[in-house]
């Protein structure tokens, strides 16, 4: 006769929980193959994102982060040239520089809050790992933007509407950010976090920072006599003026 034990505490769950239907990182041998250069890094994040997640947890992941950051900067500069081709002139160099600066500043600004929110969520990820995942997010975003570049160039050469070009570029940015954040969310499920509330809060902050950066570094698409704006403005007010104010069909933009 079996007697059920009384007062026996339940078994402690595994320190590395796996969601239903989800493999642990590294269980697939392909994920353990080192990523030796930026070309492999590009292919990995597009075809095998779990491989990137796993390699970022390994010793010496700094080289991978440097490669991903290098790709991100090159891609955003290329996309920036296409953005600048709408107004031509000095915008051919100003737009790429502004986009690259804005991307890097946004990442630096948002990294501390990302690490804090992941810690509050119970995540065991180290700061270096979160830095690597953020770099992966940037690389995937900028790769998508480069993919949109031919479409953006076509519209920039066939219309003079500054507001609608702004809407088009914002649409491309939102799509790129969406897929970049999906990569980050997928990686977050492997950090042993108890809740995703912290990450969801950070996502809102990240999107707001990106939108404000488009205003802080304006004009990015149109022309201006100064490299940076001469007055402060909130992004909602700026885009409200651009889209809801007087009709604009010129490539010149005043602050």
Distance between the termini: 85 Å
- Strand content is under 5%
Shape: globular
Please count the beta strands (DSSP E, at least 2 residues each). Answer: 0
User: Which ranges are low-confidence, i.e. pLDDT below 50, for 5 or more consecutive residues?
Assistant: 1-5, 8-21
Instruction: Report helical residue fraction.
Output: 55-70%
Average of pLDDT:
85
Taking the sheet with the most strands, its summary is: none
Q: What is the count of structural domains?
A: 1
Structural class: mainly alpha
Q: Rg from C-alpha positions?
A: 22 Å
SSE series: HHHHHHHH
- The number of helical segments is 8
Tell me what the structure shows.
With 255 residues, this protein is mainly α. The protein has one domain (34-244). The protein is 62% helix and 0% strand. It has eight helices and no strands. The protein has helices at residues 38-47, 49-55, 62-84, 91-120, 127-156, 162-188, 197-216, 235-244. The longest helix is centred in the middle third of the chain and has 30 residues, at 91-120. It is globular.
